[in-house]
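If you are new to this repository, start here. Below is one unmodified record pulled from the training split, so you can see the exact layout before writing a loader.
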Amino acid sequence: MIVFPRQRVFAVGVLACPRYTSGLGQSYQVREILLRAGFLSFFVGLAIHAGTWAPITPEIWAMKEDPEHGVKGAVILERHMTFNGRAIIHVFRARVLSDSGREAAELMEFSPETTSIEGRTVHRDGSVVLFDKLKDFTSKILPNSEKSGPRQVIIPPGVTSDCVVELRWVEMAGGGEDRELPWSMGYSAQWWLGSPFKVIEEVVEFQPGYHWSAVVIPGRGNKPEITNNGRGRKYVFRNLPGRESPPYALMSLAGRPIVLAWHQPRPLVGPDRGEVQQYWEIATREFWKPHFKNRLQTGKAFKSLAEELIQDLPAGGPEAAELLLRRLDRRIKNVDSPTSEEKSTLDLKAIQSDSYDQTHDLEMIVKRGAATGQEMGFLYLALLEKAGIHPWLGLLKNRNVSLFHFDVLDVYQVQHLLVGVQSKDGRVLWLDPSLRFAAPGLVNPAYQGWETLVVDTATWKPTKAMIPYQPAAFNISQYTFQMSFEKELERFKVGAKFTGYPEFLERRRFMTRALDDQARQLKKLLRRVSQIAPSLPPRFGRP
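And here is the target side for that same chain:
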């Protein structure tokens, strides 16, 4: 994971402000920010509560399920997102038509900056359930999927199989640096439009007060009505069909519309209005090169480590890079996957919360002997340079979450780093220095097979490229069994070749356990094997 510079914050109610530690002028700035934020919250709250709900017409109550026309379970009547530079204002209205449609009222958890919640659930008989606090909602854990862990959703009160749910809420922006997104979203955020249920109207509006960059990508088969008066922009989608996420499919490939909003670093303001390739060339020179090279701090401890690890390496190429990564993994503890001993002996929380400057302080990291996955990447790149190897950088995004868009001029959309080393025959070995307990050359399938940004550190020139799919054989485990029989004694030996990503996940799960827990897991595995063996054909089981 790549983390970008950001100030530490402390919370004041639902607002976030920079932490100032000393100085009269700084204290004045804190009061100024808090006062502005307080007034901002007050006026945004007035604006949202001043509105009235649109009438629930007889036509809305007359709606029924109509699978032939894509109406199943529920209909999203309207969903609005308004960006005004001070907050993001949301409006949501749904008509639930059946018991299965109750899922339409399930919302992802609110961000920490959410305030001014106001909503109601209206039933056909005219009864109304009002709510205006987070504690009014109930929560539910959704089961694991193939691509993510369990997710929690929140449910408004009073939802039945025949009702209308209406909700408004505000996510406050702010927290210094002229922020125009909520602090918890960082410098870049994305929202999926559309729904598994049919959407009558979906609106995204950027008002004149919003000055960060933003784009709406219509998706497949969706054409919005666009209003652009030179000061603000408004996108209106009508009658979006319900699009469920099929099992084993990627949401990022479903063709749903996307909203992207981000901060443009100052050196890139101006180039972001020009040609795409030029933008990425300037971004590489002014943003990525400082991030991965110029800001790294080294000293005697790092120099000593480098001399130790690059000694007797093969002469350049993938073999040298692979061996160097193995050596680095043995010398520096990667706390992204801590062992049981490291959990009790290291201050993991402090290490994982390193500031932007600390992540670049290789001298401090080497002395500490422990690093995050991101810091392992910095160390590895610096060691490769000491070894005279100029690798490629693969700047990627996890396609299980969303895709990297080369034409979207947002450096913050990058989430992950791979390091590529080219052999004499032109093939490239891609290495992931953030992975612990993995065979060098293993790449998460979520980073394979989609366009990304590749930077040659010999010239610092960027190109649009693709991390190739790894062969299917790379994700197959191979086992060998040897059994010997003696009087009243049976012996067997198991050999395993770990190559694929599933095996890496199993190894990481095993290696991070305590020793006694590892022994218990092995006993369970052997017991399972002994239960399966009698049912196998003779050539696999006992003679």
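Two things worth knowing about this chain: The longest strand covers residues 74-83. Residues 292 and 381 are 8 Å apart (CA to CA).
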